## 1
Amino acid sequence: PGDRKNKGRTPAFLNFDQIGGQDRAKKELMEGLDFLIKHEQIKKLGIRPLKGILLTGPPGTGKTLMAKASAHYTNSVYVAASGSEFVEMYVGVGASRVRDLFKEARTKAQKEGKDSAIVFIDEIDVIGGSRDGGQHREYDQTLNQLLTEMDGIHTDESPRILIMAATNRKEMLDSALLRPGRFDRHIDVELPDKKGRLSILSIHMKNKPIAKDVSMEQIAEETFGFSGAQLESVLNEGAIYALREEKPAIEQQHLSSAIDKVMMGERTDRESTQ
Ligand code: ATP
């Protein structure tokens, strides 16, 4: 789907300060990550270890960026898969892919000499959709395997594993996934407000020449409802308009046209899926 088109641009290593806005989400996430960092204290205090963090919110708001930044912040190895990669015609293949993912995390940690790993599963709803309605039966084995892996995580083992997952359809998830000891910490990653949009724009402006006439305030104002991914597109499309006019820098008019284009693109995406 269209929301995956920016994936290739995400850098491999990432800091939390390269994620604009999302102050509350970042703060909650860092508190959760303390479980990996302060594991000795957690154990001494008898606190139930945290195994899973669920990031919820609309597409393109930075959930994948947050998972990557979490790995960097906790000095963990990072392995990732998307729920749709586990969907297979043949029974059992999805389950064995889940097993392989966790195996990969352990092997990679050992190879890189790290004692923790973050396993990120994007679009978890694809395999973790509610079983109550009788749908998704073919994915049951895959989901069961994921639950087995989660239950099998021991905080004493090396590497310590934290599972992060993302969805924009939290209400669809099977209740088994949300039980204590599984994904019991949820963080909302919402569309950015104006301050957040300004901060995202300033991150993506860094490698681009911007003309003096540009008011970022105004761009942030005009992009109400845009996700981080869409804001990144606005700057990119703006640069393409500047290139077409052979201008050395991106001007306000280029960005205004880019806003229209991204907005239109969004509309046609939506229409084509209706
Ligand atoms: P999806 O639901 O499609 O998986 P997502 O929430 O995981 O979306 P990301 O993949 O993290 O979104 O973001 C896509 C791209 O959008 C990023 O590579 C980045 O360029 C830009 N982006 C999104 N959110 C932010 C943000 N808060 N700060 C800076 N850039 C952002």
## 2
Amino acid sequence: AAKSAGGGRYQFFSAGLNEQAQERVALEAALRDALKKDLLTLHYQPQLELREGRVVGMEALARWHDDTLGTVAPARFIPVAEQTGLIHELGAWVLREACAQCKRWHQEGYPVTVSVNVSIKQVMQEGFSEMVVGTLLEVGLEPRYLDLELTESMLMEKAAESVALLRMFKSLGVQISIDDFGTGYSSLSYLKNFSVDRIKIDQSFVRDVTVRDDAVGIIKAIVAIGHSMGLQVIAEGVETRDEQEKLLLCKCDQVQGYLHARPMPPVQAAAFLRDAFARAAAASGEDVPPS
Ligand code: C2E
Ligand code: MG
Ligand code: MG
Ligand code: MG
């Protein structure tokens, strides 16, 4: 009896693993198909300068709706893309789409940057920088309007290689942000070696800021360190006015979050920019840009 029970448990366990593996295989096949059929889209979320509320950038976030699977979150399909190598094709598509969109915003009179999330696997692949340069040239976007977001944990995992990689990006003239900052156990000595322009304070710290006094202290410290290194500091996941006020007290430079806008499809993103720039122009007495 003991043996069959043990066998049963074993079977159950392996069935569980199988299910996981099967789901991954199914997801991979569907993602491959979605890329081929151009079924992914990008949503854009504004990044605002905190003191005056100007929109300075838009972050591109990949979206996938599959007829059978429904809406699949990036948290599910990005890891699959990374594990299967599809991230190269996906990443190249995201980069081109986001840069082309940014160029159109510029032509409409909204000179914002576009932030593109990139995975370490992707950037370490041979030819990545050539692909970036090629895309920028083709689209006609100046490098300084492209911001590459790399997570702190990815950078720390490959710390030694990352130092050289980031220097190379700098030489291209693109901006670099460290995403999810505060969750990846950065050593400050590395931060000093990383040639980056901005750190993005992870939303877990932002969430704590109105409930825990020490969270304010932590953010103040991050901002002070960032500023001492000449970096901009943006807080992500800002949902309430309360949080935003605390961030202003912490001398945070920029904010991004549901308080201002959720990630939006291109049409809504354009409307958001139109309104934001019209308001800014009215406030400063300039002409309203053409719509
Ligand atoms: P991330 O780059 O840190 O993006 C921030 C995430 O927080 C996004 O989730 C965004 O929708 C969400 N968010 C923004 N504001 C708020 C807020 O006020 N409250 C809350 N609760 N959430 C907020 P999303 O779009 O599901 O993306 C998750 C992650 O997937 C991203 O985290 C990024 O690491 C990755 N990702 C998304 N698109 C791409 C892509 O094109 N390439 C790569 N490599 N990764 C991507
Ligand atoms: Mg990001
Ligand atoms: Mg983040
Ligand atoms: Mg993240």
